[in-house]
Amino acid sequence: MSTFKAIVIEKNDGKQTVSLKDISDADLMEGDVTVRVTHSTLNYKDGLALTGKGPLVRRFPMIPGVDLAGVVEASSNPDFRPGDQVILTGWGIGETHFGAFSQKSRVKGEWLVPLPAGMTPADAMAIGTAGFTAMLSVLALERYGLKPDDGPVIVTGAAGGVGSVAIALLAKAGWRVIASTGRADEANYLRGLGATEIIDRSELSGSGRPLGKERWIAGVDAVGSHTLANVLSMTKYGGAVTACGLAQGMDLPASVAPFILRGVALLGIDSVMCPKPRRLEAWGRLSRDLDHATLAEITTTIPLSEVIDAGEDILAGRVRGRLVVEVEHDD
Fold first, then answer.
1. What is the dihedral of CA 314, 318, 324, 325, to 10 degrees?
2. HEC states along 5-46?
3. Which distant-in-sequence residues (6+ apart) come within 8 Å of 138 by Cβ?
């Protein structure tokens, strides 16, 4: 029986270990589609899983990786045939079902979406859950009725994966984007993506007042905690902010004042269980709205063998933009 490489997280006597090892088809979990994984990506959630610093993995052993792109190798699902190029983000892979850091993955066909025309698997993983989440945030602001003429939009965690793609998408749509970051040396990078103003994250990361000066009409927040509370307190009357991350924390030490005095809305963004029609809408928009040159600018590529070390880097804030993992060629 042929083998292939996978990163496997194991837990013995309460201690987690992570290693790159050889496994076979017999080791894979149940599913009606087997995908030859060509590319994956490293998200903040993957960093938590790889390091054990967050309760992300729900069963052991586990193959981490919440995003994959590849080619269908075998299928009993009527929607997919061998040779089809597909994307999978979310649905619990890398948490409860073996994930993407493996050269093969067996999954449920209902979790898959076709790779959009004109997009390569590497492009799809340069977008990944982070970019998909950013697109869901943009769509949510649009559904709420906000538009660029209403005022500026703030993006927190701006140099990270969600933030980088959100800035690029919002700038292309005509928004004046304010980028919040703790990395002053990334100012040129953020302006290159389309940000018109850079503010230090320290302006938002501490305890704030129930209401602050109105500064923006919309926000995309991937940070949570005090940062989200401060973003809400400075949102203009009738504005809205999407909550899509927790880099600072899961808590929200906020006041009801922005909601009852300014009519501000907090829009929750879930990328894991997002229904398929909305997934198709988001990937369609990403294929049209995200410039390939911009995508290349925010992307670094690493082999599967470097993923374990990169998990520490992404949690420490040392990763700019997106990390694409070349899974297929790591021999």
1. -60
2. EEEEEEEECCEEEEEEEEEEHHHCCCCCEEEEEEEEEECHHH
3. 166, 169, 170, 173, 220, 285
Q: pTM here? A: 0.91
Nearest in space to 95 (alpha carbons), one of 45, 41, 132? 45
User: Which residue in this structure is represented by tokens 């089809």?
Assistant: 84
pLDDT-derived band at 291, boundaries 50, 70, 90: confident
Query: Where do the DSSP E strands lie in 255-313?
Result: 265-268, 299-303
DSSP single-letter state for residue 148: G
At 303 the three-state DSSP class reads strand
- Strands 299-303 and 322-326 turn out to be parallel
Residues 6+ apart with CB under 8 A from 168: 193, 194, 290, 291, 294, 295, 298
CA distance 16 to 241: 37
Q: What is the pLDDT of residues 237-254, one digit of tens each?
A: 999 999 999 989 999 999
Taking phi over 0 as left and psi of -120 to 50 as alpha, with beta for the rest, 92 belongs to: left
From first CA to last CA, the distance across the chain in angstroms is 17
- Nearest CA to 269 among 126, 165, 192? 165
The whole-number pLDDT of residue 67 equals 97
Residue 305 tokens, joined: 């063998």
